[in-house]
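1st attempt posting a full record on here, be nice pls
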Amino acid sequence: MTKALHFKSEDMVFSQMHSDAGGQASYCPLVGPENSRTIDAGIAIYDDCSIERTTNYDEAAVVLSGTYRILTGEDYSRVIDAKFGDVIWLTKGTLLKYLGDKAKAFYARYPVDWRTRSESIEGLKPLTEV
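the predicted structure (as tokens):
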């Protein structure tokens, strides 16, 4: 059975992530394995922090406020400065740094179990049921 969920902003609780990143990095998970078989989604805040990683997921992010900065490419030479309404698409295996200046972004990631999955996701298609 399908259902619609409504996440009210006043009910969102943010938790710190990457305490070694400097500044503020926090997130509020909204969709995950407990309510989806395919997508992991939430809201993230980045302010005066730097988080380096290689993505283990495909990710789409929509900037809600501030400046969301992604450094990628060779020696992090490509700089993406995204502002309100901009959309960023990152594919699995992207080496990057997440940065921000009072940035708040909605993110959606596939697969939902990217934290525990170790095998390749190439060739897999998302399920249509949530």
